[in-house]
Amino acid sequence: MSPLSEHWQVLQERIVAACARCGRSPAEIRVVAVSKSVSAERIAEAYALGLRDFGENYWQEARTKLDTLPHDIRWHFIGHLQTNKVKYVVGRFALIQVVDRVSLLQEIQRVATQREIIQPVLIEVRLAEVAGRAGVSLSDAPTLIEQTLQTPGVELQGLMGVAPFTNDESVVRSAFQNLRCLYEQLPVPNRRWLSMGMSHDLEIAIEEGSTMLRIGTALFGERT
After folding, report:
1. CATH code, domain with 123
2. Which helix (H) or strand (E) holds 34?
3. Whole-angstrom Cα distance, residue 7 to residue 19?
4. Predicted confidence band at 213 (pLDDT cuts at 50, 70, 90)?
5. What percent of the chain has pLDDT over 70?
């Protein structure tokens, strides 16, 4: 068994155990393999194990992967997206998870409308007040949500957030609870993905209602 195969097996066991504790089905959880700095060959290995969702942070790195890997992969854009890169990302990624400001929303709309497509998006909400942390604040999120719901060419499918990096489980849990509370205020058709939980906090995320995990280290190992 390859290291990646072993990692995938352990990850699935963690998800099953977390779901069992809170009475959920593992079928409710979508795993997005975070493939930033991961070679196309290793992504292909993960694909062979059955993974179909992969998350990229940078267009410059993702572009060759999109062209060379199987076309039924669902690519997710999960890094900070500059408005001048939107034209490369819209229509190429199944889900843009990082809408956090009106200017980005408007540029996605402009490109999507021009191409006569509907671009699925998540709104990224900032769950920790850390310098440089992306995301719209919890207090400003309702306004951005409302604007996104009214924007043609864009389909809001839910919310994304990154919990504070801390060993204090109560802080992480509270952050996820805040995001879920906001998520539950979305119109029912727009409650498709609650993207929260990474390698180190996925159990808490599942217990607090996550439907999409973004997993890098637990699958591919530490980045160099």
Report:
1. 3.20.20.10
2. strand 30-34
3. 18
4. very high
5. 99
Residues 97-126: b if buried by 16+ CB within 10 A, e if exposed: bbbbbeebbebbbebbbeeeeebbbbbbbb
Q: Is residue 224 part of a domain?
A: no
Distance CA(35)–CA(62), nearest Å, equals 9
25/179 Cα distance (integer angstroms): 21
The rounded Cα 116 to chain-centroid distance in angstroms is 24
Whole-number pLDDT of residue 37 = 95
- Asked if the model's pLDDT at residue 133 lies above 90, the reply is no
Range of the domain at 177: 3-219
Amino acid at residue number 172: V
Residue with tokens 């709309």: 109
Torsion 198-137-107-153 (CA) sign = positive
Single-letter residue type at 174? S
